Structures are given as structure tokens and as C-alpha cells.
UniProtKB/TrEMBL annotation:
Sample GO molecular function, one term: ATP hydrolysis activity
Swiss-Prot/TrEMBL keywords: ATP-binding, Nucleotide-binding, Transport
Keyword Cytoplasm applies: no
Annotated ranges, domain ABC transporter: 15-244
Domain of life: Bacteria
Protein name, UniProt field: ABC transporter ATP-binding protein
PROSITE patterns according to UniProt: ABC_TRANSPORTER_1 (PS00211), ABC_TRANSPORTER_2 (PS50893)
Keyword Transmembrane helix assigned: no
Pfam families documented for this protein: ABC_tran (PF00005)
Lineage: Bacteria, Pseudomonadati, Pseudomonadota, Alphaproteobacteria, Caulobacterales
């Protein structure tokens, strides 16, 4: 197994996870030993394929699942021995839409606030509903709402008791573009107020845009934790694409050292390189092409996305395991 990068948060930790693991009675090891600190006011994105352990990790931190080993401290409180105090600091938006279908929007959000022992605050609840474009639906029964509106209600419920830590488990999966935009506007507002946000997502471009740090989890193991910008700089490759004047049947042997690939039925030649390297290899490749008499009509470079990096990390770890 390759060593992981585990960059600590810049701010003081609001969540500290130490030696956390989970093995079910069936023998399934859903989480291997996980150590992670998340800073106050941070947006932390947890990425991983289905079944990687993302939801198990969130469920343990939120006190829904009991760990086999390890500890979780949330805002200074142990999630097991001080459950009520710890859980009152946490808001959770689960993947599943679980609401009382016969209640109105306003009633269910107000009730959620009361469950955490918070005094009534109609003005605060109204603001949450307005932030999520739900105020005009406040008297509607949840059973009459669309899937996207129900998702908004789940978010409102999670925010009703003014948590310091908010977990969003695939919050924008299967929702409309408008809700996704509203969601991220709200996330930014919450972060500005000092709320810590941990999200899992399949929309990697959202993590790239929003998250301060990214964690990659695979087969129950946290294989990397890194600042998003540093990760892009450290692992991000660039791709040079040359649109050839004449299609090639095969890559000439003289170009073997650069390991370029033919694409688009031989009309394009692709070369991947490290943009941070002292010698990128691009000038020498161009000279070699000119020497061979290979002409090209156009060229462009593209920076790897976080999705490209994520896929390469997963493939690398699978190779290490194999």
C-alpha cells in the first residue's frame, strides 16, 4: 500500500477521529483504521466510490452506528460517552428522504428544532426556509412536494437547531440545477458563520470548487487527505493535444520516450506531462515531431480535473492491492 498524504486542517479541530474502525457481525470490514481532524469553519469533501465507507464514517460520527474501535470527539464532546452534547452540535442531511409525509413543512422543521431542546424561534425557522426557497411551501404537506423540495426540507430540518457541524451525505444527488445552486449559496453562508461542513458527493467538480480539503476513501481506508489546491498542484497533470495535419497509423518509434497516445482515429496525438516539472518534455517533443516531418494544425493543453486525479488515485491503490 502506498503511503497516504494527511494534511492537517489550518484551523483548530472541531472534529477529531482517532483509530476508528467498523467491522459488522457478518465479518464485513466497512472501515479500517481512520484518523482524521477537521477544522472549525472548514468545508471538507469526502470522495469515494459506492461502498467505500463514506456513509459508515458519517453515521459513526453522528452517533447512528457504533464503532468497533476508536473515538470521535465533536466540538469537545465524545460521541459515545457524551452523546447528547455531541449530537446537539451536529446537523445531518442523509441520502434517504425520511420525513413525516402528512406534516406540513413548517411543522416538521419546527418539531426538529424542539427535538434538540432548542427554544422556539419562529424568525430563525422562517429564515432557514427562505434561504432554501421553502417559505411559500411552509403550509404544504410534505407528501405533496417534489423530490427536490423534499430534499430542501431535509436540509432545513438539519439546520433547525443551529448546529456547528453539518454533514451533507450526497446532498445534490438527483436534484435540479436550481437546488444545487441554492445549496452551495447556503453552504457558503454557513461557512462564513463558522459552521463546519463535511460533504460526500459524486459531483467532483463541486468538491473542486467548494472544498478546502479533500479526503479520498477506498475500501474503508482513507488513502489521502489533502488541501484541494495543493492536491491539484501536486497530482494534477497537463495534457498536450496535437491536431495532426495528416492522420497517423501508429506512433513512430522515435517518439517512444515521451509515450504519446494516438486518439480520434489517428488525427490527434496526446502527451501527458507534469506541469510543475523542470523539464516538461514539450519543447523536445515538438522538435522531434518537426525532425520527423510530422505537421500539426493546432495544439492545446488541458489541466487535469479533480475527477481525473481521483480516478488515478483509485487505480493506483487497486494496483498496489493487487
Amino acid at each position: 500500500m502506498t503511503p497516504t498524504t494527511n494534511t492537517p486542517p489550518k484551523a483548530a479541530p472541531v472534529i477529531t477521529i482517532a483509530g476508528l474502525s467498523k467491522t459488522y457481525k457478518s465479518g464485513l470490514q466497512a472501515l479500517k483504521t481512520v484518523d482524521l481532524s477537521i477544522g472549525k469553519g472548514e468545508i471538507f469533501a469526502l470522495l469515494g466510490p459506492n461502498g467505500a465507507g463514506k456513509t459508515t464514517l458519517i453515521s459513526i460520527v453522528c452517533g447512528i452506528v457504533t464503532p468497533s474501535t476508536g473515538t470521535v470527539v465533536a466540538d469537545g464532546f465524545d460521541i459515545q460517552s457524551q452523546y447528547r452534547q455531541a449530537r446537539s452540535r451536529i446537523g445531518l442531511v442523509p441520502q434517504e428522504l425520511t420525513t413525516d409525509a402528512f406534516e406540513t413543512v413548517l411543522a416538521t422543521v419546527t418539531f426538529s428544532r424542539g427535538l434538540f431542546g432548542k427554544a422556539p424561534n419562529p424568525a430563525f425557522v422562517e429564515q432557514v426556509l427562505r434561504d432554501l426557497s421553502l417559505w411559500d411551501k411552509k403550509d404544504a404537506k410534505i407528501m405533496t412536494l417534489s423530490g427536490g423540495m423534499k430534499r430542501r426540507v431535509m436540509i432545513a430540518k438539519a439546520l433547525s437547531h443551529e448546529p456547528d457541524i453539518l454533514f451533507l451525505d450526497e446532498p445534490t444527488a438527483g436534484v435540479d440545477v436550481e437546488l444545487r445552486r441554492d445549496m452551495w449559496q447556503l453552504v457558503r453562508k454557513l461557512r462564513d458563520r463558522g459552521v463546519t461542513i463535511i460533504l460526500t458527493t459524486h459531483y467532483i467538480e463541486e468538491a473542486e470548487e467548494m472544498a478546502d480539503r479533500v479526503g479520498v476513501i477506498l475500501k474503508g481506508e482513507l488513502i489521502l487527505v489533502e488541501e484541494t489546491k495543493a492536491l491539484m498542484k501536486k497530482l494534477g497533470k497537463k495534457t498536450l493535444t496535437l491536431n495532426l495535419a495528416e492522420p497517423m497509423a501508429a506512433v513512430p518509434a522515435e517518439l517512444a520516450q515521451w509515450k504519446p497516445e494516438l486518439k480520434n482515429e489517428g488525427h490527434e496525438l496526446e502527451y501527458s506531462f507534469d506541469a510543475n516539472a523542470e523539464d516538461t518534455g514539450v519543447p523536445s517533443l515538438i522538435r522531434a515531431l518537426e525532425k520527423l516531418g510530422v505537421g500539426f494544425k493546432d495544439l492545446n493543453t488541458k489541466q487535469s480535473s479533480l475527477e481525473d486525479i481521483f480516478v488515478s488515485l483509485v487505480h493506483r491503490e487497486k494496483g498496489a492491492v493487487a
